[in-house]
Every structure is written in structure tokens, then in C-alpha cells.
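A quick aside before the break. I want you to see a complete sequence-to-structure record at least once, exactly as it would be stored in a machine-readable document. Don't worry about memorizing anything.
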Amino acid sequence: MYCVCKEHVELAIDKFVDDYEDAPDMVDLDRTQFADWDPPRKCDLCEQRAEILLV
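That is the input. The structure line, written in C-alpha cells, reads:
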């Protein structure tokens, strides 16, 4: 699972495919609420705001 900014989506997809050998599902964090989980505020790869969740 990766939470990334829009700038790092491609890189995170590549890493996800390398790790799990499958394509991830993409979730827009601005449009999705989670009942039991708060997504990180920052991108996993930089200091920008996390906008996309790859699972």
C-alpha cells in the first residue's frame, strides 16, 4: 500500500507491481472517507500532500 502525491503515482505503481506482481487499485483520498483509518498526510516519497492511495 502506498499513499502518494499525484507527481509520484507512476513511480508508486511501478514499485507496487514490482512488490506484488499485480496492478494496484487507485483510490482518490480527496473523495474517500475511511471509517477506521486516517491516511497519512504526506506522500510516502516526498513531503507533498498525499492524494492517491494504491492498494
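Two observations worth writing down. The chain has a mean pLDDT of 96. The longest strand covers residues 2-4. We'll return to this after the break.
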